[in-house]
Amino acid sequence: MRTQNFRISTTILPAMAIALSLGLVVGLNVGGAAAGAAAQALSEPAGIDRDQRVSAARAQAINKAAQRFLDQSADQPPGLWLAVWDPKRGYYEQGYGQAVIGDARPGQRRTARRASTNDVLYIGSITKTIFTTAVLRQVARGTMTLNDTVEDLDPALSQKFPTIASVTVRDLVGMTSGIPDYANAALEQVLGDPNKKFTRHELIALGLASGEQEPIGTGNYSSTNYIILGEMLRKVTQRTPERSVNNVLRKAGLSRSRLPLSGPRQAGGPPAGIAHGYIGAALPADLLGHGLPDANTDVTSWTFSWGKEAGGAYATIGDLAEWGSTCLGNSLLPNKLVRQRLATKDIGALKYGLGITREGDWLSHTGQVLGWSSDVACNLKTGAVVAYATNSTNGVRDFPSLAGSVIFPDYFTASE
Questions:
Q1: What global pTM score does this model have?
Q2: Which CATH number fits domain 4-412: 3.40.710.10, 3.40.50.2300, 3.40.630.30, 3.30.70.1290?
Q3: In the chain, where are the structural domains located?
């Protein structure tokens, strides 16, 4: 996939934007014949043959690399979840380490639990790829277009926030709206009050107050875009953005994945089988200065109402791999829209399309939230899939350097 200099830590953590993830991959611009060929290749779902298992020797090598990562990762994640699919070599998924750290302190008693492939984990901004698919399916149906503006689809929202009125669906989903990100401001409030609840309008206001709004067409990664688009999609479909996302999950066959209504605290608490999330050891001093006691601070019961369609979904590692097998939703879309989705623009160090990033033949997106981090990718030519996740905030940062050359070298060296 990439070398360590493209990781989350160098791109967002210094600015404290860890409340939502970036798709931190560097890719190649896609257009014309290349994009057309890619779209044609994705016209039917590829799928994963879970009965085609990797060899015992390969499984042993993967297990050894995974354990080395857990032993040496700077973030000290308690657990690692991994799934790889290569049509030539087979499928393998496994959980390593701990899903829950035991705690015998009075009032804090908690039984340790080993990681397993039945665990669910929050997937951060990989949610964006699912939500983008929901939006593009509405475009395919003709209920909206990529050129519709906020004012066109949600006049009331544009009246409340007039500076976003002329921003288009394409600008929002492609990160070229120039609208600032709300992540830093929301994170500050969550660290002060872990039970804080946010409405979409509050998140939009936080984003707009977080910096100067750049001209439309300016590339900047901002989760505010997706909250705005969530309101617009609600107007078009007359259903919640959560329902739209969950419809896509069902269509893709992801039975253990869901975007809860405004986050788990509003839906009755964290989902059953959740792998607990922990702060991790690789956060910058300005975050730890907020009174977080140590790397093992458990944030599982903290609010997720800031995530929504920008970063609030959860999945098992097997479901995440299954999402990868759709090439992050492309196989659920008509070829014409896939071609448009894969036309990338520079967003900082990224080549970002419509809710997706590309490097060479790999399409991917990273997910990072407070307590969990993840990544999923598919190969356009081979149908190969890589998915991995940790239950610490910055756990995936050094996974490529510690385990990538063994797990799937074609992916982790693609940007070299």
A1: 0.89
A2: 3.40.710.10
A3: 4-412
